[in-house]
Amino acid sequence: MKNLIILAGLTLIPLSGCVQEKIDYQVLHRDALVADTHSDTPLRMLKGFDFAVRDTTGHMDIPRLQEGGVDLQVFACWLSTDTPIEECRSKTDKLIDSLTAQVERHPDKIAFCHTAAEAEEIIASGKIAAFIGIENGVAIENSLDNLQHYYDRGVRYMTLTHTASGDWCISSADTLPAFEGLTDFGREVVKKMNELGMIVDISHSSVRAVEEILKVTIDPVIASHSCVHAICPHDRNLTDDQIKAVAKNGGMIGINFYGGYISAEWNQLSDSFWTAHQVEVDSIKALYPNDYSLRQQAYKPLLAEMRVLREKLNVDVGSVVDHIDYIVKLVGPDHVGFGSDFDGVYGLPQGLTDCSMVPSITEELVNRGYGKADIRKILGGNFMRVFRTVCDK
């Protein structure tokens, strides 16, 4: 590869040979369709704040999405696996209601998309396209009829499990699985999602579950917010074989921004820190066993302490792009994007701490020599291809 010199972080010029086209990352980012395949912001929306007002407590709001050039945002409605089964649908509906209220409150700035074609129309009109996802298959209360219910409400992807296994899909965190990957009902869920035109999300699923999902599905899948196991060996991350299988399926992987999935060193620091503070963590959980919001507030002093330690680590935008780069080198540029996990994680890389900073990814890709066509794929084109294939049929 020819030696390159980087000028002002924008232009790549070979030191010998012909001059390449200059790429202004800001212009490219503004012109590209940018899609974030996962955020947990509906959890904050339950509080009823105005999503159109710039906020300082979370990672995302409309002004910062606009500043970050994010055209399509997936809003994942998350449910804990320990939610009583009879409460799962009602709690998921409340999250969708909260998101719907915010979107309907600002029709000049944001609108729901149900197909890729609809998303493109919304974006062309100058608005943000809001995509509804569900994170954790417990939301369907073990009923295929509830998949239809959520589809009718506008949901277009579902993450099949979370950090604990459900009744029909094994979590990647489960070290003593009760069954192998998927049950027969789990296979029926995948088939029903294919039938409806709902994207199957394999993030959080075990290795065996992913194998079973890919055997059953007739549509491309996504891993909405996962990273590369070879770089950071965490159960949430995908092995080379899984990445190749997703690529063969025609799917895509949204790289998660959480430091513990990006950096092994970060993960080790976090594990050590939480072990040292286990008594405090257990106390907080005991005080607020059923109130996620109050637990978050109680964790703030601990999180502030950890933040100081993490700042000493060299985990930044480049660390995120390392995962993108790895997948591109392994299977090509057609199967990767990003799924930030904004408002769902405790620690983010330097230079990527809220959605207004997303253009820094484009800058890093330009600086690494990526061309415009591949950058456009990574920023949103790959997800839009899957979205169109599954949901526009």
The gist of it:
With 393 residues, the protein is an alpha/beta fold.
Q: Work out the helix count.
A: 16
Classified by CATH, the class of the largest domain is Alpha Beta
- What is the strand content? 5-15%
**What count of domains describes the coordinates?**
2
What value does the average pLDDT take? 93
Sheet having the most strands: 6 strands, parallel
Query: Structural class given helices, strands, pairing?
Result: alpha/beta
Task: Please describe what this structure looks like.
- The chain is an alpha/beta fold and 393 residues long.
- It folds into 2 domains: 26-263 and 317-391, Alpha-Beta Barrel (TIM Barrel), CATH 3.20.20.140; 266-314, no CATH class.
- It contains 16 helices and 11 strands.
- The chain has helices spanning 25-31, 42-45, 62-67, 88-105, 116-124, 144-152, 184-196, 207-216, 240-249, 259-262, 264-276, 278-287, 292-310, 317-331, 359-367, 372-391; strands at residues 4-7, 11-14, 35-39, 72-78, 110-112, 128-135, 155-159, 199-201, 222-226, 252-255, 336-338.
- Strands 3, 4, 5, 6, 7 and 8 form a 6-stranded parallel β-sheet that branches.
- Helix 6 (144-152) packs parallel to helix 7 (184-196) and helix 8 (207-216) runs parallel beside helix 9.
- It is globular and about 55 Å long.
- It starts with a strand and ends with a helix.
List keywords for this structure.
globular, about 400 residues, TIM Barrel, three-stranded parallel beta sheet, single chain, 2 domains, alpha/beta, six-stranded parallel beta sheet
